[in-house]
Amino acid sequence: MKVLFRQMGEWLLTLCRSVIPVWALIAVWLLSAISPAGELKELSVTEADGEFTLRIVSVLDAPVEEVYKLITDYRHAYRINPAITSVDILPSGRDGAVRVQNRSEHRIGLFSFEVEWVGDIVETERGRISITTIPKMGSFESGSAVWEIRPLGNRTWVLHESTLNPKFPIIPIIGTYIMKRHMKKAALATFNRIECQAQNMLQTEREEGPERLKVALKERGDCTQSR
User: Would you say residue 227 lies in a domain?
Assistant: First the structure.
């Protein structure tokens, strides 16, 4: 019996080590269970041959300029993803591309781990951003993503779609289920923060002026709690 319990414990530990780091890596990356931001139009996660694809579409209750500023402020990505611990802007070697290196730290229960992502970001046209993961410089075999940001009156229509193939193994059935579930939570959490911070930015600029924006955003909170 002791041998059986020991074997079960070893299996659970292996499961946590192999699954938990993976679902926390998706471009959109936090695990808080937060209610949908704005008006959620679509949310899906699919998997094929170890490659996971996330698609989310939502209408946010914030003007397009503020939403756009937040999404393209790569150096301060922690405003919509507090798990990020450092950001570096690297030479890209590609015309019109911004190469970004993000490091993030995640803690799930007793487990703590770090993630690294490197990718080239290109604004192909106003409101459309394409992202290509650099496989040799991070935690993924391959990956790509796109953002589309469009004005809708005083609100903003936002689409994010990302495909990533993690280097970590995924245990069949259980691992895939866990990853899909938490990718959805992560996407909702990130969109909620975008909406919240964009509203904070607009209010700050109106009441205190753009020169107070950085300090005032901190004073108003980091938008990491459910609303």
Answer: no
